[in-house]
Amino acid sequence: MLINPFNASIGTTQLISTTGTTQPLVVSAVDKCVRVVNYGATNPAYVRIGTGSCTAADILVRANSEIILYKGDGITAVSVLQNTGATTLAISTGNDGS
After folding, report:
1. Could you give the 3-state DSSP secondary structure of residue 96?
2. HEC-encoded secondary structure of 4-29
3. Of 92, 88, 90, nearest to 40 (Cα)?
4. Contact at 8 Å (CB) between 14 and 33?
5. For the segment 51-78, what is each residue's pLDDT rounded down to a tens digit?
6. Binning pLDDT at 50, 70 and 90, where does residue 23 land?
7. In CA terms, which of 16, 33, 65, 93 is 20 to 30 Å from 26?
8. End-to-end CA distance of the chain, in Å?
9. Which one-letter DSSP state was computed for residue 33?
10. How far apart are CA 35 and CA 98, in angstroms?
């Protein structure tokens, strides 16, 4: 199976520092994927694609890692939450890579 590399849409990257409260973001409705890069050296974070509050039951993004998630057309909601401490996330939308 061939997976094309992630192709970020220009100007969509948002930097966010996580807190102990869900932080919602608005992302592009037309892009099919979301890339979440956790720049923190020690603290993981959670991410939710779609509406609702992000919780510890959502997708975990480990420290010093990235994940590319399929979000589908029309979805504009992403939310994040810290796990054990604050970290910085870069969230971009684009296509391919998932």
Report:
1. coil
2. CCCEECCCCCEEEECCCCCEEEECCC
3. 88
4. no
5. 999 999 999 999 999 999 999 889 999 9
6. very high
7. 65
8. 12
9. E
10. 9
Could you tell me which of 40, 78, 85 has the C-alpha nearest to residue 59? Answer: 78
Mean pLDDT across the chain: 93
Identify whether the C-beta of residue 43 lies closer than 8 Å to the C-beta of residue 71: no
Dist CA 2 CA 86 (whole Å): 36
Q: Is the pLDDT of residue 90 over 90?
A: yes
CA distance 23 to 42: 20
Please state the pTM of the whole predicted model. Answer: 0.91
Measured between alpha carbons, how far is 23 from 53 in angstroms, rounded to an integer? 8
